[in-house]
């Protein structure tokens, strides 16, 4: 009886609790912006967004992250330093990420603007595309 109960309990998550349909893809897939951040940003800005003291700035509470989205897009896409970016002498210069897709850039910027205690509006791929179309100044 114990063995049967244990087997039943182990199989319940696979059974879907009576549902024969998979959850929607959006519910299964991790946030793409968080994935991009983990792959390309967390090394310098850390998983918690607090940066490395004396080396890389925090994105938590950053005026650049919370400021105008177009300035943040240009900074991350082209390396165009925004006026809201405080003078900082880090060990490593932030690279330009123009090679990321509009969707990935919008996703990671939205992730940063809405994580680490930040509360700023999302960035949409159309805004990224419009700035990309204008190009680097």
Distance between the termini: 73 Å
- The dominant shape is globular
Return the structural class.
mainly alpha
Q: Provide the residue-averaged pLDDT.
A: 79
Number of separate strands: 0
Summarize the topology.
Elements (H helix, E strand, L loop, with lengths): L1 H14 L9 H4 L3 H9 L1 H4 L17 H4 L2 H10 L23 H12 L11 H10 L3
What keywords describe this structure?
single chain, 137 residues, mainly alpha, Cytochrome Bc1 Complex, Chain D, domain 2, 8 helices, globular, disordered N terminus
Describe this structure in words.
With 137 residues, the protein is mainly α. It has a single domain (31-134), classed as Cytochrome Bc1 Complex, Chain D, domain 2 (Orthogonal Bundle). Helix content is 49%, strand content 0%. The longest helix has 14 residues, at 2-15. The N and C termini lie far apart (73 Å). 21% of the residues are buried.
Question: Nutshell version of this structure?
Answer:
This protein has eight helices and no strands. The protein is an all-alpha fold.
């Amino acid at each position: 009886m114990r063995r049967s109960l244990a087997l039943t309990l182990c199989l319940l998550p696979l059974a879907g609790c009576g549902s024969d349909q998979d959850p929607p893809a959006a519910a299964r897939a991790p946030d793409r912006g968080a994935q991009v951040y983990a792959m390309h940003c967390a090394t310098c800005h850390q998983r918690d967004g607090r940066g490395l003291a004396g080396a890389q700035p925090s994105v938590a509470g950053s005026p650049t992250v919370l400021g105008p989205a177009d300035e943040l897009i240009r900074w991350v896409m082209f390396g165009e330093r925004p006026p809201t970016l405080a003078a900082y002498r880090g060990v490593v210069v932030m690279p330009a990420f123009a090679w990321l897709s509009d969707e990935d850039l919008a996703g990671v910027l939205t992730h940063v603007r809405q994580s680490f205690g930040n509360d700023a509006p999302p960035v949409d791929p159309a805004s990224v595309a419009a700035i990309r179309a204008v190009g680097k100044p």
